[in-house]
Predict the 3D structure of the following.
Amino acid sequence: MAENLLTATGLEVIYGGRRGVKVLHGVDIAIRRGETVGIVGESGSGKTTLGRALLRLVDVSAGSIHFDGREITHLPEAEMRPLRRRIQMIFQDPMASLNPRHTIRRILVEPLLLHGLAKNAAEAEARVAKILERVTLPAACLDRNPHELSGGQRQRIGIARAALLEPDFVLADEIVSGLDVSTQAQVLKLLKGLSVDLGLAMAFISHDLSVIRAVCDRVYVLRFGKVEEEGACAEVFANPKSDYTRILLDAIPLPEINPGWLDPKTGIEDAA
Amino acid sequence: MTASLLSISGLSAVSDREGGMPILRDVSLSLERGEVRGLVGESGAGKSTIAKALLGILPRTVRVTGGTVQFEGRDLLTMPARELRDIMGAQISLIPQDPQTALNPGRRIEAQLTDGLRLRRGLSSREAHARALKLLEEVQIRDPQRVLHAFPHELSGGMRQRVLIAAAFALEPKLVVADEPTTALDVTVQKQILRLIRDMQKVHGTAVIFVTHDLGVVAQICDSVTLLYAGKVIEAGATADVLQNPKHAYTKALMAAGPRYDRPDAGLEPVPQAVFEQLRAEIGIR
């Protein structure tokens, strides 16, 4: 078993000051090197907040976060900055996370220079050309602006941007929820391949258990800001321990005729 | 009466905004009374354009270049605006996609539910109130009195979608167009809403055009399905036939592209480029 890269214990987040709303109620999570961990839950479960807390994008009111053996819970931003390269994020909406006024070239080249991973523009360009090939985008993309690409292409740019900086950890928050199935399959396959090639640890946030099952090794099921169930995907999906996980799984409509699927079975569903 | 409730035949349309690009290509489909038909496809397939044509709300930039949309034997496309108004909302109604924006944020639910009952059905305020209360009970809202007096922002997404379903069925329409009505909802809520739409449709004998991109949803709620790509019907038939025995390579590829929690080794196969090439050749793109 590989060592833990990112761990959090007893994580609490309160939105809106001291008397605000507590959205995480003591979450423990551990992500090992090279492992893809799914974080699943319905709206309001705290999955996005958990992701943001792990990246130190929101402040925690209790608990601790360790990255690569070092406590980063309250690390000042100046000390966080060198770590930022190693911790990347892919966003849900690539249209909102790519600067609309920049060309794809600038979007990909600039971070390399900023983090000193390339000595000059030519070197950066060479690396960008390489990663573009990896995410199967034509070099002609470089001179386009984000709005000139399709949703699937934009999301592949988001992946390329994260992968370019050779991170140790990537957080992917609902990155395929806006995509068509055929495009979604392409993006997920690409991401899975990259994480294996680069030995990435990844936290994959999604509301879709089928997507989680396809790309993750382990899964955390969140509900009301708490971990409802945690374990290896093979185990949790075949044999869920929590009623809530079972209800979530049962609520997914499969593309096969299943008479009676819509009929109410028990009272537990309403409780969900 | 033997004629279908709805019969779309040879419907073609182009988008003037995109230089006359075809967005519907010779689309034909029919719907019997009480039937639920899924309209499926990925973005750009034309499923929403068909839904808009049925509701008489095609944008100005969309120009119909051929075909008919017969509702009870009358063509909606050539009908005088006055007659169209009598049909829309009363005979054909909509369950919209986004429960957050479909309700007027400044009016109470009661006002929004009773407009049609008073103005189109001539009910008195008191009668309309009683009917609205009944409708909310029918869509299983637990505290209908409170909800009637609530503003939309005081309700959850699932509650709002229930209100919109009540509104869609309020005037006893013959056809309800459901435009991705569960896409914005959590899976557990989606299941409840799907069940509700099915129950309402059964009780009232209403036909439903169910627009969705999710073949899983189609399998659970639709009697029949029409699959579109780039404005063209690729495959159509009874849901069980299409899903269990898909004929077109694209249908098969779509089934293989969707991940399934119960089959970790299947799914996640991107639609092969050859399939898209076949589609383009068949449709005559480029």
About this structure: Chain B touches chain A through 40 residues (CB under 8 Å). Chain B has a mean pLDDT of 94. The two ends of chain B are 44 Å apart (CA to CA). The longest strand of chain B covers residues 21-31.
